[in-house]
């Protein structure tokens, strides 16, 4: 047997058989000769034509040293319409520059006041205008909420979110006092505290900040153009005003949208445009997919195509590189493989636990097992500090060499 380090040369041999003519065949024979080093000369063929990853807005995003909030709709459209696998690849590279690529933030959500809301959000089971079988309740006792937070922490969650079905907080002084006690109690457990209570004014935002609130969720839901088709009792600008009150108080802004409300791709682009052009990018961006609930106007809506979901996540990651992108409602009906594609596209947070507000949620044990299979891990609290989300690097290549290795590019 010749040395395995040898080279192969081609010879031609004619096989003969009585009465049968066989054409000459080429095969290789190994010879013990020194290997010739690869040439250091430049290739004679011209380079491959540029791909979407290396041209236009995607190229600028790949080489950016900090987030930007001067995006135009046309620029976001260019990103959104990139061939999907190239878009996911670019989003994954950008994600690694700003976040630990295998770390996923675990958040647990508790409905602390169910139903009875006066709004007409056409997707929501908690509206008093629709017959969904949901029974309205009063605000949960403080200790009951803190007991749920302790369970969430024991299962690995480091953000505890509390939602109350109200239009706004006007005239709810007692309720606000109790909610502030919940916030303080959650923070004393060493967890982040987030609430979603409807519209709030500047004074209420300050009270929540003083109680220790980490983040306030107030979704814009969809594009400005499609919004009137979904909700008529609260304007888009009222939502943006609440977001501004939250930001002015020094509370992290958590705002995103819902996919599958009868919108089109222009509305996905418009949603990202609204978020990416805020004075400061949201600290976290939840991307929900509609879970149709019987009795609501959207109760019979067909599920949105998955490629639109992952495309929107990737576009959000490209345009808001420092934000946490949360895979929120609707994850429970996604296969494990679909979830992984969302993580590869830039999602790096989930809701986990017993329930969302009114719909089912992936359980802690289920998520732990999935993380183990795919090499993911819960995000540590110190990885959530704001300075990690404004990471500046000298170049994309420098960031690539310093990025944390991972089995999944999350």
Molecular structure report:
It is built from twelve helices and 14 strands. It is of the alpha/beta class. It has a single domain (70-402), classed as Alpha-Beta Barrel (TIM Barrel). The strands form three sheets. Strands 5, 6, 7, 8, 9, 10, 11, 12, 13 and 14 form a ten-stranded parallel β-sheet that branches. A hairpin with a 2-residue loop joins strand 2 (16-17) and strand 3 (20-21). Helix 3 crosses helix 9, helix 4 packs parallel to helix 5 and helix 8 runs parallel beside helix 9 (306-319). The longest helix has 16 residues, at 173-188. Mean pLDDT is 83; it is low at 1-54 and 387-410.
Please name the defining characteristics of this protein.
alpha/beta; two-stranded antiparallel sheet; globular; disordered N terminus; disordered C terminus; metal ion binding; 4 iron, 4 sulfur cluster binding
Q: Name the CATH superfamily classification.
A: Aldolase class I
Total DSSP helices: 12
Mean pLDDT comes to 83
CATH topology: TIM Barrel
CATH class membership: Alpha Beta
Strand percent estimate: 15-25%
How many runs of DSSP E, i.e. beta strands?
Answer: 14
- Which spans have pLDDT < 50 for at least 5 consecutive residues? 1-54, 387-410
